[in-house]
Amino acid sequence: MSSLTADPTFGLFISIGTYALAKELYRRVRHPLLNPVTVTIAAIIVFILTLDIKYDDYMEGGQYLHYLLGPSVVALALPIYERRERILKMARPIIISILTGSLVSILSATFIAYLLGGTREVILSLAPKSVTTPIALGVSEKIGGLPPLTATIVVLTGCIGGAVGPEFCRLIGVKNIFAVGIAVGTSSHGIGTARMMDEDITGAAYSGLSIGLAGMITAYIMPLMMPVIALFI
């Protein structure tokens, strides 16, 4: 087993194979809790823990998929570009919506953590939970959070949004695909956007746009919000 896991292609094939199975399971069942990304993450964690596989061995191949995250996010620009005229016409409500969503995400996460007795480091680690991982880690480090904890919470947030985000929007009466896309992208970044790709390509375009804008807004407003957050940490 050790020689197998040491092979650089091991992590790559495990990841791709598990995702392919999870995708087929979702296609057959179509249950929101069986989101392919969430199922894949959970299955791989169980797999490497059960077989006592070192994370570094898994990442020998997994790093190639990690590298492709950047180009895959850039690829989301295509559906945005194809709808650029409509997006420009709705620039004001888009920016206001994402700004509001980013503020609510930061304040709700930090305040709930405070009410539950979280330490200062935990509270600050939760603040950038809804933006894409590279930005969240940079923000967390700058404001005094714990980047490893932030990374975990960011992935968990994305999994929850990807699993139930569109359903929750419909449950509360939000059915406009523009609004759903903005909400999912602002709250659950790339994993939520991957779910929107299955829902509606137009919604995915707005969700992809929200990833970038929410990340920039969060990076800019976090330093300005620190005096407010400091009142209860």
What does this structure look like?
The chain is mainly alpha-helical and 233 residues long. The chain folds into two domains: 2-75, no CATH class; 78-232, no CATH class. The protein is built from twelve helices and no strands. It has helices at 2-5, 9-29, 36-50, 55-75, 77-82, 84-89, 91-115, 120-126, 133-143, 147-171, 177-199, 201-229. Helix 2 (9-29) packs across helix 4 (55-75) and helix 11 (177-199) packs across helix 12. The N and C termini lie far apart (48 Å).
Element order: H for helix, E for strand: HHHHHHHHHHHH
How many domains make up the coordinates?
A: 2
Range of strand content: under 5%
Tell me the number of strands: 0
Shape: globular
Number of contiguous helices: 12
Structural class label: mainly alpha
Cα(first) to Cα(last) distance is 48 Å
Unreliable runs, pLDDT <50, ≥5 residues? none
How would you characterize the largest beta sheet?
none
Which whole number gives the mean pLDDT?
Answer: 86
Share of helix among residues? over 70%
Rg to the nearest angstrom? 18 Å
Describe the protein's topology.
Layout: H1 2-5, H2 9-29, H3 36-50, H4 55-75, H5 77-82, H6 84-89, H7 91-115, H8 120-126, H9 133-143, H10 147-171, H11 177-199, H12 201-229
Helix pairs in contact: 2-3, 2-4, 7-8, 7-11, 7-12, 9-10, 9-12, 10-11, 11-12
